[in-house]
């Protein structure tokens, strides 16, 4: 079992994210996974720095910890040629420690440029397939062109390429996206402890690592932890169909106005009891995931990192 730490760009500024990554390496995490947003989910989260700049700084400040995007949408806000170049550069800077996590995106971040975010999931998946084809093509070297239904590349070449391209982890929530992960990716990425996601991935021929985010909130008591989640991270209880569709933080504010503390406690392992955190992680391990990312929404990141080293590292690795 490999254990990762989530860097939430929606909740912290760039210097703080780098600091947390350095501390995560010292705490014994295998990798950090960083979100890639244009907007935060809620205005009171208050941040949304440019992920790729932060990643470059983390690469320079760390020595051994893995880096991953969780996840980047390489289809609307970014053209896949730009992501191919950015990922190749980062892989060189961190000497092969990088995993490119990609997904079909959320309207929250993607509607801000160009023609906007596609209305239907099928088109989003078509875009993602073409984007992955383009990224692989450019990583193969030389001048390349591509003419797809949605995306084009005209005589482009990436000059700085690593000897081995970074692995690509593809986000999935159902059969269609799991098939994309199996056919065009090197790994699976998910946010729910659903064994059917892993089953769909394997049935489609997927045999790579399987990443999943585990929602936790550390604090000295359960109530303090749950209140912190309610204030800044209650959007996560809305489910993917809502999370992928709303365009701005004000919409998530309205959509989560009736979320209660008990709703948070059903989704998040809250408080100081390590057994609750291990139980939450076990549900993902039992579902077939082998790279678990702890997404701490508690009020004290430093306290959580210390708690991880003292109480969680060994038990989670034994799952």
TrEMBL record:
This is LLM class F420-dependent oxidoreductase. Keywords: Oxidoreductase. Coiled coil: none annotated. Residues 7-291 form the Luciferase-like domain. The keyword Cell division does not apply. Gene3D superfamilies: Luciferase-like domain (3.20.20.30). SUPFAM superfamilies: Bacterial luciferase-like.
């Amino acid at each position: 079992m490999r254990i990762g730490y989530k860097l939430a760009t929606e909740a912290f500024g760039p210097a703080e994210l780098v600091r947390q990554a350095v501390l995560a390496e010292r705490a014994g995490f295998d990798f950090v996974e960083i979100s890639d947003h244009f907007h935060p989910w809620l205005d009171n989260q208050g941040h949304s720095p440019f992920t790729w700049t932060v990643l470059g700084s983390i690469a320079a400040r760390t020595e051994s910890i893995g880096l991953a995007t969780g996840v980047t949408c390489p289809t609307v806000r970014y053209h896949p040629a730009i992501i191919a170049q950015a990922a190749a550069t980062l892989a060189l800077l961190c000497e092969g420690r990088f995993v490119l996590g990609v997904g079909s995106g959320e309207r929250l971040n993607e509607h801000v440029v160009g023609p906007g975010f596609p209305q239907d999931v099928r088109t989003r998946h078509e875009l993602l397939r073409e984007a992955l084809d383009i990224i692989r093509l450019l990583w193969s070297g030389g001048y390349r062109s591509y003419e797809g239904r949605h995306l084009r590349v005209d005589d482009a070449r990436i000059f700085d390429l690593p000897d081995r391209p970074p692995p690509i982890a593809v986000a999935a929530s159902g059969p269609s996206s799991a098939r994309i992960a199996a056919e065009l990716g090197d790994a699976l990425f998910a946010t729910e402890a659903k064994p059917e996601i892993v089953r769909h991935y394997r049935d489609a021929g997927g045999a790579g690592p399987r990443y999943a985010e585990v929602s936790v909130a550390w604090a000295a008591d359960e109530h303090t932890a749950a209140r912190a989640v309610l204030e800044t991270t209650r959007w996560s209880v809305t489910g993917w169909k809502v999370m992928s569709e709303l365009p701005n933080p004000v919409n998530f504010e309205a959509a989560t106005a009736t979320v209660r503390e008990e709703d948070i406690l059903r989704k998040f392992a809250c408080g100081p009891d390590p057994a609750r955190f291990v139980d939450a992680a076990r549900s993902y391990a039992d579902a077939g995931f082998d790279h678990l990312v702890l997404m701490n929404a508690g009020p004290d990141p430093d306290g959580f990192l210390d708690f991880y080293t003292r109480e969680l590292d060994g038990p989670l690795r034994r799952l």
